[in-house]
Amino acid sequence: PPQVEAVRVYVTTTSDDLQYPVLFVIRQQKGVLSWQVPLILRGLHQRTYTYQEVSRTLCPLEPMEDNSSWKEYMHVDVASMAPFLIHYQLLVTKVKHFTLQTGVTFQFNATPSQPQYFLYEFPEDLDSVVIKVVSNKVYPCSVVSVQDIVCPVYDLDHNVEFIGVYQSMTKKAAITIQRKGFPDGKFYVVFVIKPEDYACGRSVPLSTIKGRGNHSHTWNLEQLKDLEVTIVPSIDERVYVEAIIFCFAVFFSFYFCALIIAFFHYIRIHKAEADGKYSPEDEGAGTLAASHPFASGMGEGSSYRAIDESSSTTGGSRTSPAEGARCRSYSDSSGEEDSDYDTLQHLDSDKNVLGTKVFLYVSDLARKEQRTVSKKYKIYFWNITTIAVFYALPVIQLVITYQTVVNVTGNQDICYYNFLCAHPLGVLSAFNNILSNIGYVMLGFLFLLIVLRRDILHRRALEAQDIFAMEYGIPKHFGLFYAMGIALMMEGVLSACYHVCPNYSNFQFDTSFMYMIAGLCMLKLYQTRHPDINASAYSAYATFAVIIFIAVLGVVFGKNDVWFWVMFSVIHVTASLGLSTQIYFMGRFKIDIGILKRVGMVLYTDCIQQCNRPTYMDRMALLILGNLVNWSFAVFGLVSRPKDFASYLVGIFICNLLLYLTFYIIMKLRSSETIRPIPLFCIAATALVWGSALYFFFQNLSSWEETPAESREHNRNCILLHFFDDHDIWHFLSATALFFSFLVLLTLDDDLEHVRRDKIPVF
Fold this sequence. Notes:
elongated, SID1_TM_fam, SID1 transmembrane family member 1, Jelly Rolls
């Protein structure tokens, strides 16, 4: 068929009189196009920019296939109201390369007064293409628009955003176009240069010349931008199917491995029982105990009657069987789970004894009745489930609205995708970024199944009154583990919601449950050796709510407001000191009006009168190191004021969690405890996978801290299966790393399953 041809009109004038411009009107068969010279374009704050050279491509008409002699006529009218003679030049040329070819790079240039557009037609075998545009210049700022075949073509700064799909651009732009959006299989690619670069991140130019009236004028003839456009085929349906199968296959392999481990454990235990080698009376049976994810756990927090003698500041002390019975009588308190922080204050007969002991054992802090304590920790699960439902539903509604706005308006500056690797599916613009979050959900659910099996086996042991389940090992409460599994699943859901349309306004969706995961892990570590005095679910989630509120304030005000950073640093340091005090005194230090007096007495007696080393040396070493780390974070934030406050806050939580976990493992080894092969493998896997994940996390494929055009400078092509980018791999690896981290917490103390609680130290 005959090729579509286009005509370009170039005009210039020597007159710079804005009161008497030269008017050009071009009448065609299906439309009228007009402009004036000097051409006036408006910028920010009504600044005006004038240009004396203008060129425009006229709207082409396709030749009729059945009429080889078909011709199109146009009329050019030139007029001016000037009372003096004005010289102008008019040049009409045929556009040599008006149709873009698939896979062929085309180079050209444009200015604010000389926009360009070209035609592209889908080949018969293509349903989707990617328009890639690059420039060797960051500025001037430009706009790339894809418009349907209609006249007039919107190719000026003030109207290019009226129709079609468009992006602002500095050095890179990429737009994925599907044939179904253009019934005729054709579209225009329009390139418009903006008169000023404010939209792309550069500050408003100061070199303006004061003109008539209240306007500032600049003669901007040097705003020339060289561009290269290449249209390449997008991926086909086969790649989508392969990517989906890959995701599910990878994470279902974890289920398969877990089933194999559970099966071999089942076979080993039954074989040992059949051979008569598996006896609860044998301390060495720990070698046959369940040290893998599906194994039955340590004993639940029932009372233990014997407390081993230990040295203290006033001498050794020992709880008698009568006192142990008295502990059990107090433990069944109806209001146990309602207190914000359990301090064992109702155990009046033992409080002073525990307060004077230098070396505490788990039996000292596991005196409450198992049913009551388990009920308290199950509130964590029910609360986080409720929070998840009420948090996720409005988030899903909001991101659907975001995606709808993007699809309706065509404004691709709303969402910060990696456009060079953003594969649409249905109404979703970047399906690959959403699909890659499936790992959080699948591994979170697998962790819930692992915890459920441990819970079931443990309850069976309690019902059978197994002495090892009742009075040996670390008291086990599964509520926090269930909450961690739900948090991991919700991280996947909310991260997927965020990646529906990632931007400045909804980044907290992606980080809210990160804070919860880190906080729950720290609570679980503390609860392991302090089962009776851990924080309640209500106070814990209230604290998380305050943290998320601070995160939102940081995203809004953290960029430039120095007072916010001052207040946050003060809150950070104060919270660190308060939490350290609670941890050091194990909840026996009240925060009320008399706190300053009590602090003074402690300092006076311990530091001035006695000049002794701290009563709890190991705990003090951890807390000093922890406070130094947190104070360093506070000073760093106050001095540098990082733009990404949410990531900064996540970094604080992760560093505190790693510090506490490291301390726990060191103290465990110092106490002559061992780490079994399965938790040792999980620790190694966690370190390896986290290291790999962080590498991909810091690739920075986009950044909502910058303008959309600046963010696209970081965009890169897919690196896995032609479907997933670096950030998708971060999703895969971080989900795996979190799963292994949870398994570390679940299995770390399996070596103590057949150790009496009065021989398990508290640290």
